[in-house]
Design a protein that fits this description.
This protein is globular. It is an alpha/beta fold. Strands 3-2-1-4-5-9-6 form a 7-stranded mixed sheet, sandwiched between helices. Strands 10-11-12 form a 3-stranded antiparallel sheet, with no helix packed on it. It has a two-stranded antiparallel sheet with strand order 7-8. About 30% of the residues are buried. It contains 6 helices and 12 strands. Helices cover about 20% and strands about 30% of the residues. It has 2 domains: about 200 residues, 3-Layer(aba) Sandwich (Rossmann fold), CATH 3.40.50; about 30 residues, no CATH class. The N and C termini lie far apart (about 50 Å). Strand 7 and strand 8 form a beta hairpin.
Length: about 230
C-alpha cells in the first residue's frame, strides 16, 4: 500500500497542481520525498534537514504561532499532528493565516469511528492493557468527520475531499486503503481549501431570540447576530 506521505502529496497536487511553496507541519519523524517545489518544514524536533526541503524550523506547535508571514504558502500538509497538539483550533487558525487565499491544507487524522477503535472504546476495561500508551500520553483530541467540518467552517476553510487510509483486520494480513469510503479507514485524509475568514463564536439558546451567537475573538465576548429557531 502507498504510505501516508505519498497519499498526502498525491491529493495536494491533484487538487492544486500549480502548488510551489509548501509547508510540511510536523515533518521531522517522516520527511516527505513526495513534496515538490519550495518545501518548508516545521516541527518541535527540527534537527534533520531533508535534501528536498528548502528550509526547516524548530517550532513548538502548541504555542500558537507559525513564524511565517501572512499568505506565504500555496499549501500545507500535515500528517497525524492535529490530535497531538493542545490547541488544535489555534493551529488551524495559524495555518489559515499563512496559506494564501484559495490555497489548500491537506492533513490526516485518526478516525475515532474506525471499527477497532470502537471496539476498544466500548470494551475499554477489557482491552485497556492492550491500548497503546501513545493514546494516553500523546493524543489530546480525536476528531470525527462532523468535528472536522465544524472546525473547517469556523476557521475559514471549505472541506473539498476526504480519503480513507488504512483498513486492517486485526490478527490477519488483510489490509487496503478504503480511498472512497473514508469512514472505514483508521485515518482519514482531509482536503481543505481556504475560502473565507475565521468566524469564531460560541452559541446559547435564548427562549425569545432562538440561537444567539457570541463572538469569541480575542476574548471579547459580544453578540454579533442571532438566528431565530
Amino acid at each position: 500500500m502507498k504510505g501516508k506521505s505519498q497519499l498526502l502529496a498525491e491529493r495536494l497536487y491533484t487538487v492544486q497542481p500549480d502548488t510551489n511553496r509548501v509547508l510540511d507541519v510536523g515533518y521531522a519523524q517522516n520527511p516527505s520525498s513526495f513534496l515538490k517545489g519550495e518545501v518548508h518544514g516545521i516541527d518541535l524536533f527540527a534537527e534533520e534537514h531533508p535534501h528536498n526541503y528548502a528550509e526547516v524550523k524548530r517550532v513548538d506547535l502548541n504555542d500558537g504561532h507559525i513564524p511565517y508571514e501572512d499568505s506565504f504558502f500555496d499549501a500545507a500538509t500535515m500528517g497525524c499532528v492535529l490530535a497531538h497538539v493542545a490547541n488544535p483550533l489555534q493551529l488551524l487558525l495559524e495555518l489559515h493565516r499563512v496559506i494564501r487565499p484559495g490555497g489548500v491544507l491537506v492533513f490526516s487524522s485518526p478516525n475515532p469511528q474506525y471499527y477497532w477503535e470502537v471496539v476498544l472504546n466500548v470494551f475499554y476495561h477489557t482491552f485497556k492493557k492492550r491500548v497503546s500508551q501513545a493514546k494516553h500520553l500523546e493524543h489530546f483530541t480525536s476528531f470525527s468527520r462532523y468535528n472536522v467540518r465544524t472546525l473547517a467552517d469556523r476557521v475559514g476553510f471549505t472541506l473539498e475531499e476526504e480519503v480513507g487510509m488504512s483498513f486492517r483486520l486485526v490478527k490477519t494480513a488483510f489490509a487496503f486503503h478504503p480511498l472512497k469510503h473514508p469512514g472505514m479507514g483508521y485515518e482519514i485524509i482531509y482536503v481543505l481549501r481556504k475560502t473565507g475568514t475565521p468566524q469564531l463564536f460560541t452559541t446559547y439558546e435564548d427562549k425569545e431570540r432562538g440561537i444567539v451567537k457570541l463572538d469569541t475573538h480575542f476574548g471579547d465576548h459580544h453578540e454579533h447576530g442571532s438566528t431565530k429557531t
